[in-house]
Structures are given as structure tokens and as C-alpha cells.
Amino acid sequence: MESNTFGLVVLILLLVVTRPFAERAWRAGRISDRAASWLVVGRLPVLGLGFGIAVGRPPLEVLVLAGIGLVAAFLLQPVALRRLVAVKAREPGEPPAS
Fold first, then answer.
1. Per the structure, how many domains does the chain have?
2. What is the pLDDT, as a whole number, of residue 41?
3. Of 14, 25, 44, 65, whose CA is between 20 and 30 Å from 8?
4. d(Cα 90, Cα 67) in Å, to the nearest integer?
5. Is residue 97 part of a domain?
């Protein structure tokens, strides 16, 4: 396995492995809906940054990739928030929406 492939695999595994922890914290009411939505969309800039670094792109391209991910995160955060609120409203026995 090439070194950049290993970095990409580690990045994807970290992003996938941390998601259930955030979901459990949200369902338990330890983090707000807004914080949970930022944790969902916050993976986009991290993915762009990590991908750019792992494949060895020049620093400017890495910043552009991370910037695109950041813009996407800001645009998608309200959508993620609405979806989380809708999920919480459908599930009985959950703590009230934050």
C-alpha cells in the first residue's frame, strides 16, 4: 500500500469511527442539535484538508480543498439541523430539542 493510500484510509476510518460517538452523545442529550449538525457537516473541510495532505497536493490546493469543504459545511448546516430536529421529533422518549 502506498503511503498516500495509508493516509487516506486512516482519514476515512477516523471520520467513520468518530461518527457513532457523536450520534450517541446527541441522542443522549449531551450535545445540542446545533452542535450535532456542525459535527456532521464539519467532516467536509476535514476531509478536504486531509485528502489534500494525504495525496501530497501543494499547500494552495490543500487550502482550496479545505475552503470548498468549509463553504459546503456552511451551506449544508441548516439542512443537517432540520434533519436532526425532524429525527428527534419522530423518536419517542428522547429529550426535548435544544
1. 1
2. 93
3. 25
4. 35
5. no
For 29, 52, 60, 64, 97, the CA distances from 68, given in Å and listed in that order, are: 31, 12, 12, 6, 30
The mean pLDDT of the chain is 87
Q: Mind listing the pLDDT tens digit for each residue in 14-60?
A: 888 889 999 999 999 999 999 999 999 999 999 889 888 888 899 99
Query: What is this structure's pTM?
Result: 0.77
CB-based contacts of 85, cutoff 8 Å, min separation 6: 33, 97
In contact, 24 and 33? CB cutoff 8 Å: no
